[in-house]
Amino acid sequence: MTINVNRIAEQGLALNDTIDLDSTHLLEDESFFVEGLNYQIFFKRENQRIQAQGKIKTTISLVCVRCLEQFELKINSRFDIILFPKELVNVRSTSLDEEELEYIFFENDQIDLEKILIEQVNLFIPFKPVCNPDCKGICPGCGANLNRSACPCEESKNEIKFLFEKVKR
Ligand SMILES: [Zn+2]
Ligand SMILES: [Zn+2]
To answer: How far is the CA of 150 from the centre of ligand 1 (A)?
Structure first.
């Protein structure tokens, strides 16, 4: 899905749509799109660069790092990025600082819209996602999901503690 920069008029170009994106582009393991992605984007020329401001809205399914269960994460975020023509970046590559390298490039007057949207989704996904901030995770002993019930290991641990306390007394 590419946008030719020549479509961007003096007053800018506004686009919005709901599209299905390929889940294989998601960086997080075992994650997938639960629904289509709705986007609104506004492109504006700034000399040779292009400013892209927009909003994305979708839902993805992720695996919680603590309890290892799938959960859904609603994504609703805004972005404001600068796109550089790749040709321009090559010429002045030596003077690019690290921050500038993060800017998304476009090539041969073509903007890869899908790439921009996917990148925004990936940026939204937290490092080590959890289903709930209070997720208790799984028991290292028996593998039970501690969000659902206490496991036998917990009980026997308490029993041992109880006996120990008794001995001390
Ligand atoms: Zn969890
Ligand atoms: Zn257990």
So the answer is: 15
| Residues 81, 103: Cα–Cα separation, whole Å | 7
Q: Considering every ligand atom, which ligand is closest to the CA of 130?
A: 1
Taking a C-beta distance cutoff of 8 angstroms, is the pair 106, 6 a contact?
no
Residue type at 14 in one-letter notation? A
User: pLDDT tens digit string along 82-120?
Assistant: 998 887 766 555 555 555 556 778 889 999 999 999 999
Domain locations in the chain?
2-133, 136-169
CA 129 to ligand 1 centroid distance, Å: 9
Rounded to the nearest angstrom, the distance between the alpha carbon of 41 and the centre of ligand 2 is 49
User: Whose atoms come closest to the Cα of 137: which ligand?
Assistant: 1
Distance CA 88, CA 49 (A): 9
How many A from CA of 138 to the centre of ligand 2? 8
CA gap 1, 113 in Å, rounded? 6
User: For 10-31, how does the pLDDT look when each residue is reduced to its tens digit (9 = 90+)?
Assistant: 999 999 999 999 999 999 989 9
